[in-house]
Amino acid sequence: MKNFEGIANTVFVPLLARIHISRKFPDLFYDRKALELEKYLPRHAEKGSFEYTDLASAARYIIMDEMVSNFIKRNSPCHVISLGAGLDSAYFRLTERLGGVRALFYEVDLPEVIDTRRKVYGENPGEKLISGDMFALDWAGEIEDRTRPTVLIVSGVFQYFREEDILKLIAGLTEIFPGQELIFDATSTKGLKFTNWFIKRTGNKNALMTFGIDDSRQFAEKAGVTLLEERLFFPEVRKKLGKRASLISRLCMENSDRGKKAIVLRLRLAH
Q1: 264 - beta bridge partners?
Q2: Looking at domain 9-268, which of 3.40.50.1360, 2.60.40.420, 3.40.50.150, 3.60.110.10 is its CATH number?
Q3: In this predicted model, what pLDDT tens digit does every residue of 68-109 receive, in sequence order?
Q4: What does the radius of gyration of the chain's CA atoms come to, in whole angstroms?
Q5: The predicted structure's pLDDT at residue 202
Q6: What is the pTM for the complete model shown?
Q7: Residue ranges in the chain whose pLDDT is less than 50
Q8: CA geometry: angle at 184 spanning 268 and 68, to 5°?
Q9: What are phi and psi of 229, to 5 degrees?
Q10: C-alpha angle 87-93-99 in degrees, rounded to nearest 5
């Protein structure tokens, strides 16, 4: 029996997006594990979902999965650490994509979320669940052999926090994992206005986004890290879907790319 009690609605939004896009555009993005959970979701989880935001979530996962997959191929054996993991099923997508477990995956999140992950996904080989506040950095003590190549992923999380907290976290990560890679997505300050409108539609008025990036290089300099890669969310999605997406989705994706409103950054932490 799957149990989602005590989980915030914001955890369901990306899960539902993966389910919707896997059903509607499986050639673009397919998440088998997310589909397995669909029948267990509470009814209220569907509130506020629509195609463009689903595509935005899928686009983020497509880019991040590719970046992490490439990192694993270059550096195996290595660590993949997901901060604020939620119910993301990247472990399953990547092990399927790579033909087996080629890295040690760490999933870090608050105790109630980790408890739910354990209930719905179980314990898996090559994966370790860690309860803790990602900003407190206590979880780092549970990482085995920190000399191994490591990629840290923060997916759909930073936007909910203040820049000063994020910069402090990056500084802490740099001390613990010098020279390793950090991948996260970001929204521009203009993009935050639309995103917050959507969040209000889902009923999460207390979970509005506050952190945005308008200049990736400037942010990297401020954080004392090296910008390795910046990618817009939608070029690949738009090319692959053509006119199969709705007109409003196509216009929103084009507007986002044109204004650099949604990006994924890959950074190298300082040595």
Answers
A1: 185, 231
A2: 3.40.50.150
A3: 999 999 999 999 999 999 999 999 999 999 999 889 999 999
A4: 18
A5: 54
A6: 0.91
A7: 1
A8: 70
A9: -160, 140
A10: 145
- Count how many Cα atoms sit within 13 Å of the Cα of residue 143 in the half-sphere of its side chain: 28
149 preceded by a cis bond (ω within 30 of 0): no
pLDDT value of position 7: 54
Give residue 205's pLDDT: 58
DSSP letter string over 154-217? E-S-GGGS-HHHHHHHHHHHHHHSTT-EEEEEEE-HHHHHHHHHHHHHTT-TT-------S-HH
Distance between CA atoms of 179 and 164, rounded to whole angstroms? 22
pLDDT at 1: 40
| Measured distance CA(267)–CA(269) in Å, rounded | 6
